[in-house]
Design brief:
16 strands, 18% helix, seven-stranded antiparallel β-sheet, globular, Jelly Rolls, single chain, 4 helices, 252 residues, alpha+beta, four-stranded mixed β-sheet
Length: 252
């Protein structure tokens, strides 16, 4: 892997750490939106936006939802927006599959907390990159992930391959991850790795930590395989294109 530097240790309590890097050309092949499309690129980590207690409450939402299903392999997802839930080797629509029973699992308070957390992350990203939060739109996929050391059963379980979000999902302009569990305490492996030409830069997850970055090739990344325990996180993604915007989930 060459040289590895730790951008954020689990034991750090980071108010704001930001690393600026030159933007890739990925944004040129998409429509540009003035005042939003990245002109300044980089990556940041903060432990000052979401509290550990809030992260624990959010994790419980993920645990309750994922307890209804779960993949046969090492990676399970729960998407409260579309209703997608891993079940065996496939996905089901949580809302259709469970119908009215969903009210026994989630509350209005759960969804209000989810919205509040998403808005604070959006505001922080906008502030750091010097754009208006109203110019950014939540986009899909935005989802909870649960990863453990079970071997992959389908390609959906192979989360460790290097990838570029803008290439994988054309709508992404800014990506964020809110970690809901602690590296080396709740799980081993599973660090987030930015793969730069000269070195790898890792972020060690800690509950409440937000890692965010521009979604182009300047931030090629991967997640290490989880070796033991269970890693919870939520990926929250933003686009500058209103046509690709999605609403917050509603407990219908």
């Amino acid at each position: 892997d060459g040289v590895t530097e730790v951008l954020a240790h689990r034991s750090d309590n980071l108010r704001d750490k930001f690393m600026e890097i030159p933007c890739s050309e990925d944004y040129d092949s998409h429509k540009r939106f003035a005042g939003c499309t990245p002109r300044r690129c980089g990556r940041g980590v903060t432990d000052a936006v979401i509290t550990r207690e809030e992260a624990e409450r959010i994790r419980r939402i993920a645990e309750r939802g994922l307890a209804l299903g779960g993949s046969d392999g090492g990676a399970s997802i729960l998407d409260l927006h579309s209703g997608a839930l891993s079940l065996g080797k496939h996905f089901v629509n949580l809302y259709r599959y469970f119908g009215e029973k969903i009210h026994d699992i989630f509350t209005e308070e759960d969804f209000a907390l989810y919205r509040d957390v998403r808005q604070r992350i959006q505001q922080r990203i906008a502030q750091v990159f010097g754009i208006s939060p109203s110019a950014m739109y939540l986009t899909k996929p935005t989802f909870f992930s649960r990863m453990n050391s079970t071997g992959a059963k389908t390609t959906h379980d192979e989360y460790w391959h290097p990838h570029v979000d803008k290439v994988t999902y054309g709508s992404f302009d800014y990506t964020s991850l809110l970690y809901l569990s602690d590296y080396s305490e709740d799980f081993g492996g599973g660090r987030f790795v930015f793969m730069d030409a000269d070195s790898n830069k890792t972020v060690e997850p800690r509950a409440g930590r937000v890692s965010f970055f521009t979604s182009g090739s300047e931030n090629l990344h991967r997640v290490e395989k989880v070796q033991w325990g269970t890693r919870f996180a939520i990926t929250i993604s933003f686009t500058c294109d209103p046509q690709h915007g999605i609403g917050d989930p509603l407990l219908a």
